Fold:
Amino acid sequence: MELTLQAVAHSKARLVVAGVAENPAYQNHLVKMAEDLGIAGRVTWLGAVDDATLIRHYAECRGVVFVPRDEDYGYITLEAMLSGKPVVSVTDAGGPLEFIADGQEGLITAPEPAALGAAFDRLMEDTSAAERMGQVGLARYKAQNISWDHVVETLTGQAHAPVAPDIVAPLEPAPEAPPSAPDATAKLASAVAPPEAPGSLPFANITQVLEAYAFDELPAAMGRPEPPIDAGLAGYLGTHWTRFGSTLAQLEGLEVQKTLDVGVFPPLVFQALLANQFPGIEMHGLWEGPDPYKQSVKARGDHPSFDITLEVANGERDPWPYDDNTFDLVTGMEILEHLALDPYFFYTEAVRVLKPGGHLLITTPNVNSHRGVWKALNNVAPYSFGIFVPSGGVYGRHNREYAPRELSMIGEAAGLKTVRLQTFDVYDRHIEPEIAQMLVARGDDLSLRGENIQYFARKTGVPQGYPENLYHGDPTRMMGEMSVTDCEAATGLTRIAVKNKSAATWPTAGDRATCVLAEWVDGVGYLRHQHIMQPLSTPLAPGEIGEMRLTLDAKGQGSLAPCAYIFTSRALAFLPGVAGRHRSRYPVPRSHF
Structure:
């Protein structure tokens, strides 16, 4: 294991370790070694795993590293081959070398960190080669006929033990018939059926909620009669009624005294429902503004009135204006899909402001829903809301819709433990029968095929580092500020102040070495130099300011563009800008334009 960790330090790969050392001291030694090597953020310790988890990781990895010394056999080699994955091993491994040849079923290197690290990078950078070697390994595994029947036949010369004359060998069961369309549809519908709203809720529909509260108090303040409920608003909120109910059902049994809703927007219907489910609850909201405000919403009849205080911040970019360990519950309902830059920041801020043991509840569309599958198979983009809304800016549309397990993946990285990960059909209960048949026949986990993901998690730790397979670069480091402090007209020597506004140190060496990407535009607006790659001369801690020097045209004919991107050399699907990634994948076009 020491050799493997040292090799990771010589590569750009990410390592997932399954199993746990029998000696706890040795396990602690390995964890500390990863920290000392500066690779703790790229090593995941799974601990003890069950068969299903192990098989899933075999299926999802790029390759399997197995570097024993004089191993007599090695089941890990065979498991990797059976999974169609290349094996990385070393020249003194022993048994694995009977199955793996360098460049054929995998890669064999000297037992040295640099050589092993180079093999890791080769697999990570050449996907086609990794897949080819994996398939060669699978073919060789099958050709070896590794089975107990073959062992018995080899040792005894008999293919099968003789069958007694008075015993009839049972026939193998006939393959199971594919499910009928009605049965499959009913099975899928049951798996994604939303839970009922809490029985204690005193409302049967959205109209009753709107009638129970004076969400708009202006008419009464001006002495005017209350206007009738807007049919369009009631209709829109009515489409979300089932989702409101299923979300409230996630909270049954909790003790919630203080809550924060991120992305809240008037009318405060969900807050009215919370006020009825949790009497005396203190409610806060975070929105993009333009201004903070506090609102008291008066109830009509016997329902509880409630107050809410709204603060202004961009939930994926600005530090949230709350102290650590403040809230029992943070909710982000139908907001994650609108984020354009950094969902991990959203999660980590939620963890920061949650009390220990507090809960995060996120609802968001499921891009892998049965309806998304139907769309993809019919050449339609699978997003539930992929249209552009120019009046809403970048946040007016869904920038990225998620697969269910991605939510728990980000949550675990941020310091959360998943309590429930479920999906429900909360808007449209229609199911295409042929899609239901296909999903049932595949043996899919139907509970993850609903149109709306509901992720409920508990704060159990602190952020461990962003999930690398979701990002291109380290988002925690990508925040900086540049300003020109001096420009000599005669020589063109320009001094630029660079401030680290992130929460991480910018190093100047290693795989996280930081440089500045800038553009230079002259006085009349012409681009003179594009993508200036300027490394930092000294490391910068958070909040520190360093200096860069560039020589531009003499007599000060140019000036730097007012913006720049700070990035790390680690090439890992989010960049710190709207144009930095594919926000939507499109189906094959019907025509060219």
The CA atoms of residues 38 and 77 lie 28 Å apart. The mean pLDDT is 86. The first helix runs from residue 2 to 9. The chain is about 30% helix and 20% strand.
